[in-house]
Amino acid sequence: MVGIRRAAGSTVVRMHPGDESDTTALDPIDTAMASWRRLLPDLDVDTMRTSLLFATAAAAGRSHVEATFERFGITSGEFDVLASLLHTADRVSTPTELARSGMMSPAGMTHRLDVLERDGLVERRPSPNDRRSVQVVLTDAGVDLALEAARAHVEAERELFAPLSDDERRQLERLIARMLAARAELPDTAVVNPEP
Question: How far is residue 64's CA from residue 66's CA, in Å, rounded to a whole number?
Answer without folding.
Answer: 5
